[in-house]
Amino acid sequence: MARDTLKLGAVLIGVGDASGTELWRDPQVPLDASVNIDWYVKQAREAEDAHFDFVFIVDSQYITPDFPNHHLNRLEPLTLLSAVAYATNRIGLVATVSTTYSEPFDIARRLASLDLISGGRAGWNIVTSQDPGTAGNFSRSGHGDYDTRYRRADEAVEAVQGLWHSYEEGAFSRDRTAPRFLDPARQHRLDHRGEFFSVTGPLNIQRSPQGQPPLVQAGTSDQGRDLSARRADIVFSFARSTDEAIELAQDIRARAQAIGRDPDELLFIPALGVTIADTDEEALQIERQRTTAGDIRRRLAALSRQFDGHDFSGYDLDAPFPELPRSEDAGIRRFHEDIENARRAGVTLRGVLEAQALGWLRLVGSPETIADQLQHWYESGAADGFNLFVQHPADWDRFRAKVVPILVERGLFRGQYEAETLRGHLGLPFIDNRHAAAGQSNPPVRHLEPIQN
Ligand SMILES: Cc1cc2nc3c(=O)[nH]c(=O)nc-3n(C[C@H](O)[C@H](O)[C@H](O)COP(=O)(O)O)c2cc1C
Predict the structure, then answer these.
(1) In the structure, which protein residues have their CB atom closer than 6 angstroms to any atom of ligand 1?
(2) Average pLDDT over residues 255-262
């Protein structure tokens, strides 16, 4: 069954994001990969041929010239996934949309549209946005602190899900003989009034095939964990070890249980990077060659993003990591905790950069070695699946051609699709329209009677 096998996502990062900034220099990667829809479609079809659960598009809405190349020039996730939807049949399509810089009505409408276009394959990665500079692009005076952004995210999700309940199944009766286009008794207003949003509803698009597209959450701060426990179907993470991944899963499952959710509903899917060759030694050699001096400048820029743009270029790389004022609201909290621990232990700036590059699961080795590690993570309860960052085409090809068949042979991954929707692939239950389930306790929107001829 769907839950008995591991889940695979492919993160499409074009010319290379912070996880692989020099990817654009690989001659097999088109120089315009991040804005080239043919490239996204090609990679999505390849993922679909290997029966991946979904492709995933990360996003943000603020840059400086030092940001990773993919961030500088990339397609907007829902627009690009609509094109990918039309060129694929089965694979799930997970889009990142920020709750800090979007309104629930827009989010609900755009995701329902993608779900309709794709026949039930849309998913939403809920983010609160980590770059305070984003405020400057959205007519805001400030980015908001963690508590505020996560409270807003929670309320946004509640409103979005409420809007997705606007229509019961078959509400658009489209009966030419009656004549009646809409059955008003099966259309429902939302009337949401909260701290951040006022949303009357109903949504102006019918119930989509999944009704409720799956929700993903990746923040791992205290507030992020609570949001996952309350709202997420899937938790993405950067985990460095099985211990760390197990702690995260146990903690979020406990939080979910405490508020009455079935903790086993949640899927934990850490990020994965791979370098694959015929032998472990060969793979290690390739990995070493790829770590070039150019990386230092890029890694300093990535570090700067965690400190709201602080310029690290003038610092001595081999001196202890400097004590810096930092904005509480910038970056990823876990990275800051790591940096603070390193600073206290007297680790140098270079040491911090090297440790940050190792801040997630990177597997280097032969296809068997990679498959063994994935099996170990899966069977130890550290992961329900993996979110593979699609970096060098050679590794992507080997992962599909060599690693996936081993996983299939071991009974760890599907050899063919058994479902048509993303919910189906992930083994998530279908959620009935709450008004239908509740016997229409909410008042339907009042409409004029249809004109009788
Ligand atoms: C796999 C993964 C993907 C993420 N994708 C995005 C993204 O596309 N856009 C974004 O703004 N943040 C993204 N994030 C960041 C988180 O959503 C969150 O904002 C960040 O981890 C800071 O919150 P925290 O301190 O609660 O962890 C991602 C995180 C992970 C682990």
Answers:
(1) 58-60, 96, 127-130, 218-221, 224, 236-238, 271, 332-334, 387
(2) 97
